[in-house]
Amino acid sequence: MNRDQLFKENERLKLENNKLKFILRENKILLEENKRLTSLLEMKQSLTEKIQFAKVYFRKPENMYDQFYIDLGEKDGIKKNMIVSQGEKLIGRIVEVYENSSLVYMITKESIVVSAKSENHMFGVVKGIGEDKLYFEPNVYDDSLKVGDKIYTSGISDIYPGDMYIGYISEIEKGDNSLFTSITIRPSINISNLKEVLVIQSRRNYEN
């Protein structure tokens, strides 16, 4: 085999190698999507409410912790204030509905307030601040709260059903008087990697 033939063979092998890399990458993407969809299906089967799958199709980087659009709208029966989740993990709610899409406000959005409770049944509210964290403000402060405690929706709401997982306490800061100054919650979902979600039609009434 002469030099030209070796060069051509080398180029052919490079091309075949690139094709194989592309196929492997595509298979990896399909496998990851399959895992996500399988997980969502299992979550859907564990819930008793009417559920619809939706894909996140538009999201601005500057609104990463505020809002996103899904590919379901009026034609799919979507209504304002329907809950958006990953299984029993709360993401947010529908705030605007269009013919083929809907706008979702996430619970991490600044000014969003959700009635919540700790796993030890300490009630309060969770507030979004536009970042990858939230703050929990209990109605009564005591020392029973600790880092790692899980926070759920309380059910004391016209919108959010009870016992949906919001996140866990990642940090507790106390002032000089030993009272809490802030309780930081780490969301239960991977906000930066949202691709598919569930829309829950709760038994509660929704706005048209």
TrEMBL record:
Give start-end of the signal peptide. none
List the source organism.
Answer: Fusobacterium gonidiaformans 3-1-5R
Which keywords annotate this record?
Cell shape
Q: Is-annotated flag, keyword Amino-acid biosynthesis?
A: no
This one is known as: Cell shape-determining protein MreC
Family in the record: Belongs to the MreC family.
| Listed PANTHER family | CELL SHAPE-DETERMINING PROTEIN MREC
Domain Rod shape-determining protein MreC beta-barrel core residues, every copy: 56-201
A GO biological-process term: regulation of cell shape
The organism's superkingdom is given as Bacteria
